Amino acid sequence: MLRRVLPSVRVGLQLAKPTSTTVRSSSGSVYEPDYLESLKPKFPQYESLNVQIKGYDYPQLESYQRFLHGVAEYLDLDVSDCYALPPQQTQVQRLRPNSTVIEAEYKLTTYERSLQLSNVDAPVYPQFLRIAQAALPEGVSLTVQEHTDDCEERRYVPDRDLLDLKAELERMGGASTKKK
Question: Ranges for the Small ribosomal subunit protein uS10 domain (predicted)?
Fold first, then answer.
């Protein structure tokens, strides 16, 4: 049955051919130049990724962050920013069995580093992630997420003195403006 249909399709296509040749741009638009299509990336890209690493041992975390930076440069990834976040302190208490008596008390400090990657090609991202997970040291956790405004806000340490002064000013009735 296909043999019967195909010759008729060929004949129909030969009849439908235009007599004059027309040149059409590859982008499909008359108003855009062809070179704009060639500037687009070949693969989909992640616009901005945050690689966050956390751990209790600061020198080990610094070394691993330096390693990740080197891997990213080796894979031709654009490292747009690299920074440390403020450490978080946690107090842990160990109790005696079946009682509320504190046997030991520990203060743990969690350090965090962040590596921001820009315009990451989709085929390169799994390779980077496999290398990062394979070299992940003990006690260090790795998370990758898209960059958000929350990530940017966590980066900066609030000035407690300034916040206290602003609160005191609000208690006193706010800022006064003198009109002349």
Answer: 50-145
Residue 178 belongs to some domain of the structure? no
Residue 66's identity, in one-letter code, is R
Residues 70, 4: Cα–Cα separation, whole Å: 63
- Does residue 65 belong to any structural domain of this protein? yes
Put simply, whether the predicted model's pTM sits higher than 0.70 gets the answer no
Local mean pLDDT, 10-residue blocks, the chain (180 residues): 42 41 49 74 81 94 94 92 89 90 92 91 91 94 85 70 81 67
**Pairwise CA distance, residues 47 & 50, whole Å:** 10
Q: How far is CA 49 from CA 16, 43, 62, 69, 124, in A?
A: 51, 16, 19, 13, 13
Domain interval for residue 143: 51-156
Count the domains in the chain: 1
In a domain, 17, yes or no: no
| Radius of gyration over every alpha carbon of the chain, rounded to an integer in angstroms | 30
